[in-house]
Every structure is written in C-alpha cells, then in structure tokens.
C-alpha cells in the first residue's frame, strides 16, 4: 500500500505555511470556493511527479510576491518511509528523496504513482493532440523507466534538428551529414516510445470499456485509435522520405511528436459527436483505467486525487464512483468538495476509513 502520511506547504500557491496529516485511507477536503482544495491536491501531485498538474510555470506555483516554495512530504510505501522534498528558489528547482538529491527528476517519477481527475481534463478529449500525448506520456512514464528519458532526449534532438532546418533555409548549404546524425538519434530514441505506446493501447481500451459501462450504467462501444506515421513505415524511412518537405517547412513533419489518439464512441469521434455526459463518463473511465494499469503494474494502488467530482457527474454516476473507490482495490483517495455534508453522506458507510479536512 502507498500512503501519504503528511505534507507541508510553504509559499506554495495560496499556502503561506501549512501542514496536513492524513490518518485514514480516504480524505475528504472541504472548504469554500478558492480556499485551496485543488492547490492541496496539486501539491500532492507535485511531490509524485516533480511538477504541477495544472501548470508548467513555477512562477504560478509560487505564492505571489515571494521567490520560491517548498513542499515536504512523508510517504509510506509498503512499510518503507520516503521523505520527499521539493524546493524552488529564484527559479532553481531541487528534489530529494530521503535527503538524497536527484540528478534527474525523471528518476523520481513512477516511485510514488498518483492519478488526478480534475475539471480541466475535458481538454484531453476537446483539446489538440498535445493534450492527449501529454496524458499518455504521464501514464506511460510511470510504467516504463526508460520511457521518459527517451522522450526528453528525443525532444532535445528534435529542437536541434528543427533549428538546423531553419538555418539551412536562411543560410543555405548542404547539411545532409548532420541531418543524418539527428535522424539516427531520433530513430534510436523515438522508436521505443512508439513501441510502448502501440503495445499499451489494446489491453488498456478493454479496461476503459469495462469502466465506461459501469459508470454510465449502460453499454456503448468506446475505442481509442493510435494515429502514428510509424504504423506504415519504419522511422528512418519516414524521416528520409520527409526530408525535402521538412526543409521546405523548416520543421520535422513526421515522428512520434505528431502522434494522436482518436477517441471514438460507437465509431464516431467523441470530440464532435458525444454528449457532455458521455464525454464525462469516458474521461472518468479513462482515468480509472489508468489507475488500474498502474495498480497492476506496481502491485499496489497509486494515490487517487479527485477534484470536484460532485460538480461533474450526476448523482448516479457519483454513487457508482464512490462505491468503486471505497472498494478493496483502491488505496489512498483524496476528494474535494465545497459541501462537507455531501462528502460525509457519500462516505457514511466507510466512516471508519474516512477523514474530513476543513479549509479555513
Ligand atoms: N501563486 C499563487 N499565490 C497566491 N495565491 C494563489 C496562487 N495561485 C492561486 N492562488 C489562489 O488560490 C486560490 C484557488 O485555490 P484552489 O483552486 O485550490 O481553490 P478551491 O478550494 O479548489 O476552489 P474551488 O472550490 O473553486 O475549486 C485562489 O484564491 C487563488 O487566488
């Protein structure tokens, strides 16, 4: 079992200095709008992923008029204590586990897995392909240790290749040899990313379907299609055949950075055809299936962070969700709501494992 025992937040968003202790499996967090419920979930997400769920800007995570923040958390993973400290000061970020600083933050990710379900998640369906890649990558890097390193290196090489393409366009000259080197590196780091994405989806979609049917209370066929140029040809061939076009466009037009996922409901694009309720059910199914694969892979349940679910789902779906997450396969759950009574009522059958935190 993975349990977050306590966390302290200093100058993190609206928290000047605050400590929270968690002694039950399920923690309800209540308080008025803007009182910091989501920010507390985000701090928990931060110590698991070394970054905020909501923003990549550390300035936005830092309390206004200050120059940094500090998060300190104590985790219990299968009986072993882990002290995680994240600090950002004057733009410099440090993360340590049990007082050992990390050289690369990517090495922390996956050690303390978590799944967040938040209102903005609709962007996974409605937004651009980047949103879907971000979601998939955040999941896969918790399962495959080398995945994130490959992805980071791939992005760096991609940037270098794109600036070389710009230089060629403005200054001319033959840079085929250097492009060959970049291509080789893109293939080396990009192909394993493609293979992990491709192999992951078929079994994942079965879990999404099961959860969708359960939450929606009816059967509708959902599907995820993985769109990638590497289905048709190996990466080196794709880059070679695109080279002329890339030089014209001054950017790399094919590769795993262009991948997308097509979400389907009864064979129609979810983005344009599904109702709001169907989209919400799908998103929850997607996130809970994510939870399930991580649980099976790690052999313990990740933390589950549920933000504002009462506002997002109708009563029936909420009660199915609550009975699911109260069940034995779930671990520590954090759930926010503006109404304390609604939380107490939802978990009244689990009151022995339920703790309520009230924000001031
Ligand atoms: N960098 C920051 N410095 C100080 N305060 C911040 C910062 N970023 C956000 N806040 C404040 O945090 C508050 C929002 O907190 P949060 O989103 O956690 O509220 P909430 O309790 O989840 O609200 P709701 O019920 O509306 O979802 C706002 O009052 C906002 O001004």
Sequence-ordered SSE layout with sheet pairings:
Blueprint: E1 2-12, E2 15-21, E3 26-30, H1 37-49, H2 58-61, E4 68-77, E5 80-89, E6 92-97, E7 100-101, E8 114-117, H3 123-126, H4 129-143, H5 145-171, H6 176-216, E9 222-227, H7 235-249, E10 260-265, E11 268-269, H8 270-273, H9 276-298, E12 303-306, H10 309-312, H11 315-325, E13 333-337, H12 340-346, E14 354-358
Parallel strand pairs: 3-13, 3-14, 8-12, 12-13
Antiparallel strand pairs: 1-2, 1-4, 4-5, 5-6, 6-7, 9-10, 10-11
The structure holds adenosine-5'-triphosphate (ATP).
Domain RecF/RecN/SMC N-terminal: 4-345
Protein name: DNA replication and repair protein RecF
Family: Belongs to the RecF family.
Describe what this molecule looks like in 3D.
- This protein has 360 residues and is α/β, with parallel strands linked by helices.
- It has 2 domains: 1-113 and 302-359, 3-Layer(aba) Sandwich (Rossmann fold), CATH 3.40.50.300; 127-298, Glutathione S-transferase Yfyf (Class Pi), Chain A, domain 2 (Up-down Bundle).
- It has 12 helices and 14 strands.
- It has helices at 37-49, 58-61, 123-126, 129-143, 145-171, 176-216, 235-249, 270-273, 276-298, 309-312, 315-325, 340-346; strands at 2-12, 15-21, 26-30, 68-77, 80-89, 92-97, 100-101, 114-117, 222-227, 260-265, 268-269, 303-306, 333-337, 354-358.
- It has a 6-stranded antiparallel beta sheet. It has a 5-stranded parallel beta sheet with strand order 8-12-13-3-14, sandwiched between helices.
- Helix 4 (129-143) crosses helix 5.
- The longest helix is centred in the middle third of the chain and has 41 residues, at 176-216.
- Adenosine-5'-triphosphate binds at residues 13-14, 31, 33-39, 60, 62-64, 308, 336, 338.
- One of its GO terms (biological process) is DNA synthesis involved in DNA repair.
- It comes from Chitinophaga tropicalis.
- Belongs to the RecF family.
- It holds the Pfam family SMC_N.
- Keywords: ATP-binding, Cytoplasm, DNA damage, DNA repair, DNA replication, DNA-binding, Nucleotide-binding, SOS response.
């Amino acid at each position: 079992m993975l349990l977050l025992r306590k966390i302290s937040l200093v100058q993190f968003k609206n928290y000047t200095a605050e400590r929270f202790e968690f002694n039950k499996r399920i923690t309800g967090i209540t308080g008025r709008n803007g009182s910091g419920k989501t920010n507390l979930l985000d701090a928990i997400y931060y110590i698991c992923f070394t970054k905020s769920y909501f923003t990549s800007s550390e300035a936005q995570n830092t309390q206004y008029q200050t120059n940094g923040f500090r998060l300190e958390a104590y985790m219990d993973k299968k009986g072993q204590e882990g002290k995680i400290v994240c600090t950002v000061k004057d733009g410099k970020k440090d993360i340590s586990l049990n007082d050992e600083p990390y050289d690369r933050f990517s090495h922390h990710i996956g050690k303390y897995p978590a799944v967040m379900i938040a209102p903005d998640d609709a962007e996974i369906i409605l937004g651009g392909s980047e949103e879907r890649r971000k979601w998939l990558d955040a999941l896969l890097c918790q399962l495959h240790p080398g995945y994130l390193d490959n992805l980071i290196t791939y992005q760096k090489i991609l940037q270098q290749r794109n600036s070389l393409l710009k230089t060629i366009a403005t200054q001319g000259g033959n840079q085929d040899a250097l492009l060959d080197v970049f291509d080789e590196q893109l293939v080396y780091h990009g192909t394993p990313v493609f293979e992990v994405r491709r192999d992951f989806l078929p079994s994942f979609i079965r879990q999404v379907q099961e959860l969708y049917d359960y939450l929606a209370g009816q059967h509708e066929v959902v599907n995820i299609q993985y769109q990638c140029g590497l289905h048709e040809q190996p990466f080196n061939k794709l880059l070679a055949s695109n080279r002329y076009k890339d030089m014209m466009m001054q950017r790399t037009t094919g590769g795993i950075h262009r991948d997308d996922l097509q979400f389907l409901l009864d064979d129609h694009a979810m983005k344009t055809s599904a109702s709001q309720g169907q989209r919400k059910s799908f998103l929850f199914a997607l996130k809970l299936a994510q939870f399930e694969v991580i649980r099976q892979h790690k052999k313990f349940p990740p933390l589950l962070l549920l933000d504002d679910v009462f506002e997002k789902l109708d009563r029936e779906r909420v009660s199915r969700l609550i009975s699911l997450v109260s069940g034995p396969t779930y671990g520590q759950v954090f759930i926010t709501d503006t109404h304390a009574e609604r939380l107490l009522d939802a978990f009244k059958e689990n009151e022995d494992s339920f703790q309520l935190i009230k924000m001031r």
